[in-house]
Amino acid sequence: MRFFVETYGCTMNRGESAELSSWLRGMGHQQVDGEQEADVALVNTCLVIASTERKVRRRLEGLSAQGKGLIIVGCMASVDRDRLSREFPEAVVCGTKDYRELPPMVSRAFGSTPMGTEGPVEDSPLVLPIAQGCNGACTYCITKLARGDLVSYPLPRLVNRVRESVAQGSREVLVTSQDTAAYGAGEEHRLPELLKRICDLPGDFRVRVGMMNPDSLRSIVEGVGEAYRHPKLYRFLHLPVQSGSDRIVRAMGRGYTAEEYMRMVGTLRGAVPELTVSTDVITGFPGETEEDHQATVRLLEELRPNIVNVTRFSPRPGTVAERMGSQVPGWISKERSRELTALRFRISSEINTSKMGREYAVLIDERGKGSSVMARTDDYLPVVIKGELPLWKRVKVRITAAASTHLYGEPLR
Ligand code: SF4
Question: Residue 333: is its pLDDT beyond 90?
């Protein structure tokens, strides 16, 4: 069969799509770029918020109406397998914990062709899932229902995966899971050691660490600070705070206070002053008062993060928060979301403007719009460079302009 891949959701889904499609190629199936030439669609689903779930369902219906075969994986396949199997009886529906079953399921549904060789996982950048699930119990989170409790992948296998990928030319490694700081909890190896072992590998590459839960970071924050000093590790921290109100954070089933959160970020900024900080906030969580909202505003003003992902609360089926009373009216959460988004762009514009005139060595890691490329500083700041420059090249630039979400740089001759 000829198949194409469509991935929704997080970096983890991206990594698993790369892995699963390499298995299908290994089974002798042909991967194509678009739906026109494809017989089958491998759709890696997400349902973290209601609007994404609706979008994915519409897409599955559209592909099915075109007569495409469906292989449905990802969190929706874990949480809603029966309903999907009812709605798409011909489809292969495989949850995230059953991926090892996918090849035989596909063979039964779409036949098998003479065994090919397991194709190399397209991996520039290499997306490296280091664990599945987490130790959290966040009351709003449907991902927990899909991914379950923490299962950390063996450290030697992960280090080997990076060694192979760098040997094949990878220049960037995206370390990911639902909560990277939970890696190896209760086991021998934790995140700082994994990062050190990866960064100690020979080769010119950079490593980005994905999202952490402050509750998991608490016990390893010093070690993570030490790890961030390694020149191969992007000085980038993604640490969702979700709310500046301790009362709301508790109602979310998370165990830190705003003061403790700021202390942890302070420790990491102490280790690497130029740390780029990304955080997430949820507005309109059940019971959120204007005072709770203002506590979030104050925290962001004090934290001055480079990036804030603002999400309006949407009750997810089967979660504790879905059954909570005092849901916040839509127009209020919309207003609060607008206010936090404006604040976030004001802060990031001020930070980016302060970078004007500075010089950086950057790694070109993405094609940009028109004739431009996107590059990353070692603080993982995005820099747009005009012109056709080759991917994965390292160049020196001077920052010539600043926008609220990125910088503009000119190559130094
Ligand atoms: S840490 Fe919380 S938000 Fe993150 S996946 Fe686990 S339960 Fe969900």
Answer: yes
Structural domains of the chain, ranges and CATH numbers in brackets: 2-110 (3.40.50.12160), 126-353 (3.80.30.20), 359-411 (2.40.50.140)
| Ligand 1 pocket check for 321: Cβ under 6 Å | no
Report d(CA 402, CA 390) in Å as an integer. 23
3-state helix, strand, coil in the chain (%, to 5): 40, 25, 40
Q: Which atom of ligand 1 is nearest to the CA of 134?
A: 6
Q: How far is CA 312 from CA 211, 286, 290, 343, in A?
A: 19, 11, 15, 15
What backbone torsions phi and psi does residue 197 show, to the nearest 5 degrees? -65, -35
Q: Are 233 and 272 in contact (CB under 8 A)?
A: no
For residue 245 and ligand 1, the question of a CB distance below 6 A is answered with no
Distance 138 CA to ligand 1 centre (A): 6
**Atom number of ligand 1 nearest to Cα 178:** 5
Cβ neighbour number for residue 136 with a 10 Å cutoff: 21
Q: Residue 203: phi, psi to the nearest 5?
A: 125, 160
For 222, how many CA atoms within 13 A lie in the half-sphere containing its CB? Answer: 1
Distance separating alpha carbons of residues 397 and 399, to the nearest angstrom: 6
Task: Report the C-alpha gap between 309 and 241 in whole angstroms.
Answer: 10
Concatenating the DSSP letter of every residue in 152-168 gives: EPPHHHHHHHHHHHHHT
Q: Is 175 in the pocket of ligand 1 (CB under 6 A)?
A: no
Quick: pLDDT tens for 217-234.
999 999 999 999 999 999
Rounded to whole angstroms, the Cα distance separating 144 from 382 reads: 31
Q: Convert the pLDDT of each residue in 272-292 to its tens digit.
A: 999 999 999 999 999 999 999
| 53-92: burial string, b at 16+ Cβ within 10 Å, e else | beebbeebeebbeeebbbbbbbbbbbbbeeebeeebeebb
Nearest to 13 by CA among 40, 42, 46: 46
